[in-house]
Amino acid sequence: MVPAIGGDHKHKIFETVDDETLLISKLPKEDAILTTAPNVPPSITRDHPALVRVPLVTTNKLAQLTSQYKYEQWTFNGTVPGPFIRAKVGDVVELSLTNKDPAGNPHNIDCHAFTGPGGGAAVTTAEEGETKIGRFKLLYPGLYVYHCAAAPVPVHIANGMYGLMYVQPEGNDLPPVDKEYYIMQSEFYHEPPEVDDDGRRSEIVEFS
User: Fold this and answer.
1) What is the mean pLDDT of residues 150-165?
2) Which residues are known binding-site members?
3) Distance (Å, whole) CA 171 – CA 163
4) Counting Cβ atoms within 10 Å, is residue 170 exposed (0-12), middle (13-18) or buried (19+)?
5) What sign does the dihedral 45-46-48-54 (CA atoms) show?
């Protein structure tokens, strides 16, 4: 297992599965191209690992849920689902999570592409106004879910705190296609709209 390092331990050596070492400070740095659904970042063509910076911000957003009702979503970077993240096997993802939740809830990232406690949740848990940083070496290709794992986990996910990360193989990417799409299935659960004394229904529905 490759350790996940957070906080101030930014220049420690990460061990690969064959006991070789890689000094993180020597890696070329690049900012991840983050896209919102249905768009997907372009295929990565470089032939070397990089330190890929992924900035995520937790915010609440009043969104039009249906033609009649609005709903306050809990988001990563203002979208549900959160941004699509793309990287390669061998990359080190530097994930920063800034908590701007006006309700004061703690948030974090549990990414199923990361090894280590809670998929990174242990080192990225941020209280309101905090920024936490974790670094994670990508070992296996695949399409992975990430989500907030702060308690109660089902409430954070149901309100919109989830997204996808694609880890490309170390060599060639998947065969090219005409178009790639970012699609996730989900639901929002809400109480019936409140009705005022005049019989008018509220345009905003609350989480159930």
Assistant:
1) 97
2) 107, 112, 147-148, 156, 161
3) 25
4) middle
5) negative
Q: How far apart are CA 160 and CA 82, in angstroms?
A: 8
Per residue in 168-181, pLDDT tens?
999 889 999 999 99
Residue 23 scores a pLDDT above 80: no
The alpha carbon torsion through 83, 89, 91, 92 (nearest 10 deg) reads 80
Q: Which of 75, 31, 28 is nearest to 53 (CA)?
A: 31
Binding residues for Cu cation: 107, 112, 147-148, 156, 161
pLDDT digits (tens, 9 = 90+) for 57-79: 999 999 999 999 999 999 999 99
**pTM, entire model:** 0.85
Considering the chain, what is the average pLDDT of its residues? 88
Environment class of residue 155 by beta-carbon count within 10 Å: exposed (0-12), middle (13-18) or buried (19+)? middle
Structure tokens at 49: 């690992």
Choose among 162, 56, 40, 51: nearest CA to 110: 162
Q: What pLDDT was estimated at residue 89?
A: 97
Amino acid, single-letter form, for residue 181: Y
Structural domains of the chain, ranges and CATH numbers in brackets: 5-205 (2.60.40.420)
DSSP string, 67-110: SS-EEEEEEETTBSS--BEEEETT-EEEEEEEE--TT---B--E
